[in-house]
Amino acid sequence: MTPTPSSTASTGSTHALFDDVVRSDSSLRRFLHGLPGVDQVGCEARAAGLGTRSIKTTAKAFAIDLAIRMVDLTTLEGQDTHGKVRALASKAMRPDPADPSCPATAAVCVYPDMVATAKQTLGTSGVNVAAVATAFPSGRAAMDIKLADTRDAVEAGADEIDMVIDRGAFLSGRYLDVFEEIAQVKEACGDAHLKVIFETGELQTYDNVRRASWLAMMAGGHFIKTSTGKVQPAATLPVTLIMLEAVRDFREQTGQMVGVKPAGGIKTTKDAIKYLVMVNEIAGPDWLDPDWFRFGASTLLNDLLMQRTKMTTGRYSGPDYFTLD
Amino acid sequence: MSNIFEYAPAPESRAIVDIKPSYGLFIDGEFVDGTGKAFKTVNPATEEVLAEVAEASDADVDAAVKAARRAYTRVWSRMSGSERAKYLYRIARIIQERGRELAVLESIDNGKPIKESRDVDIPVVAAHFFYYAGWADKLKYSGFGETPLGVAGQVIPWNFPLLMLAWKIAPALACGNTVVLKPAETTPLTALLFAEICQQADLPPGVVNIVTGAGDTGRAIVSHPDVDKVAFTGSTDVGKAIARAVAGTNKKVTLELGGKAANIVFDDAPLDQAVEGIVNGIFFNQGHVCCAGSRLLVQESVADEVMERLKRRMATLRVGDPLDKNTDVGAINSAEQLAKIRELSDIGEAEGAERWSAPCDLPANGYWFAPTVFTGVSQAHRIAREEIFGPVLSVLTFRTPSEAIEKANNTPFGLSAGVWTDKGSRILSMANRLRAGVVWANTFNKFDPTSPFGGYKESGYGREGGRHGLEGYLKGEDS
């Protein structure tokens, strides 16, 4: 599986190890199709097995605070307003105003036209602004428009760009097109971190998810992300398991860490903890950090806050005690 | 290994189980004192004595067989299949209702993790009773007639105490036989709780009799002249002794004995899932599994990669308190078994194989053995030939499918095998050439009541489970 390092000039891969792999469509296809296959039944059984771990008391308190710190608090609606984005940004900085010990979330995630508003509220709080770009969520636009979309978000102050891949190209086997798309968007990102969204609900098979993961990592994505949240199914445990295996194996080969972000459909603390158990036991504890694992979510945060309050006070408070957005 | 995400203990409560200080024998629907001595059963995770259990003497076994005969002639063999089914369905439902109690007791007495007793053993036990309840009124379609044999003497091992009981009792009762069953001396408690369930289900007295004890009690059952059928699961040595004891009698026998299964990983296998299958194949139930994948045959071209992945995975196995819901590997069932595992592992090392154990802290009390893998093993090593019956994996390599078949079949056993490859045609050709009763493809250690289970060669004869499992308890079409 290990490709031979090459001394010839790079065609865009961030790692010289993969220069030969990304030289042509056929070499890239050979590599991606040469990755070990995924047995669907076994993969789903493993994910379900990890889901039976029982996380209690101190471990649960640790997991809840970590999960809060990993949330990309998201609003991606046509009806979003500047006011809503400002409210969301305030909440990201102080998720539980009644408890100053509650950590901030990792980022807020908005459309590019809301970046400036979010940035203004967040200031130097340390909470990042992530913007979805490249004709999110379908990715159906010309390349120059996707790049302009990206640059627009970066110029407005986005710290992180969540791009979507061209699923049409991927599914028709034009892997090099997808690779180059990611590489170009990465260049347009400048210093901003790049998350690559696969829309795994459209890729459908675990083999495809594994191939897309390697493609995005070789093209220099900082994070690989499951879904836009606009297509069902969005994030699932087995899909995330495949991606965690991919980042683990990629580090084994290159020494380089890549982050993972499941997004969409993760609503409860119980779900979030299952993901963290999986991160811990598949990729390893190095990934238990907001720099390397994120949750793309909106309603999850309130459930985390309710569980957190329950752990500290011993009582459940109603949803009315937490802000809606 | 320190980890920032340290799972806090999550113990399942013992309070649901009421363990009595002493237990008698279950004969003719009642608990009675034995006329023999008593023995102690211990919790292998702590060495705490759980209870005193009666050791059935020859006279006790005789009383149990007489009770079974009475129940057979007067009640059970005359009852219609649909009526027998009602009792079996009732037992199955009570097992489900009391599932947590049974799971906790099984883990306490056997040492297996609660995760497995809760999610595997007990659900499959209930499924067996449900499945054979369905057969009870359909025996004329079985292909083996509908005439029962009479009294079945059944002797079961300690590795899956209640599951082996279900494999034996459910088909026997469905076919109209009555039983005298002896659980293993180190794990009698769930069988005795099952006796209580028979009372709760109003099963007619004498249909199920449970006699506890060790080898002598087992011999008394097997050689009792009024037993029509002997069913045994356990070691090949005892199986041979039973075959000798029943030779020349009219007793029908099924034996499910040892194994040394090959788990064969080809280079095109889904490697991450194959590693899970290897782990599940040998570390499930501490490797106390007759069909365990104790010999890993891995294609040479991926051997290093598989070993690297396997060791990394083994390092995440959580060994410890069987009642902790996060425990993956529990306690070895007895001091005797632990000594045997240690002895064979030491021999493996002395014979030149390379030993690696997962880094884990083992509890100070109780019987424990860290998950262990031997590399550089050859067919000539004892650890590649003898059943260790513990969490010890021997790794061999191969280059071609023929070599894999040759090595896999080169054993006196033939209970199970596993094949890992993405190529469907190869799975089929391997399955045809492997001389093993069960061949798993891209999975391992999966059990279902509808699927027959049993061995080739010294792994025994007869099948348990599925339609095939009825054959051992019926007289046949032309009788």
Shape of chain B: globular
Number of extended strands of chain A: 8
Beta-strand proportion of chain B: 15-25%
Q: Greatest contact pair?
A: A-B, 29 and 25 residues
CATH architectural grouping of chain A: Alpha-Beta Barrel
What are the SSEs and their pairings?
The complex is a heterodimer of chains A (325) and B (479).
Chain A: H1 25-34, H2 40-50, H3 57-69, E1 71-74, H4 82-93, E2 107-110, H5 115-122, E3 128-133, H6 143-155, E4 160-164, H7 167-171, H8 175-189, E5 193-197, H9 200-203, H10 206-218, E6 223-225, H11 237-254, E7 259-261, H12 269-283, E8 295-297, H13 300-313
Parallel strand pairs in A: 1-2, 1-8, 2-3, 3-4, 4-5, 5-6, 6-7
Chain B: E1 22-23, E2 25-27, E3 30-32, E4 38-42, E5 49-54, H1 58-76, H2 81-97, H3 99-110, H4 114-135, E6 151-155, H5 161-174, E7 178-182, H6 189-200, E8 208-210, H7 215-222, E9 229-233, H8 236-246, E10 252-256, E11 262-265, H9 271-283, E12 295-299, H10 300-314, H11 335-350, E13 354-357, E14 372-375, H12 382-385, E15 392-398, H13 401-409, E16 416-420, H14 424-433, E17 438-441, E18 460-461
Parallel strand pairs in B: 1-5, 6-7, 6-9, 7-8, 9-10, 11-12, 11-16, 12-15, 14-15, 16-17
Antiparallel strand pairs in B: 2-3, 4-5, 10-18, 13-14
Helix pairs in contact in B: 1-7, 2-4, 3-4, 4-5, 9-10
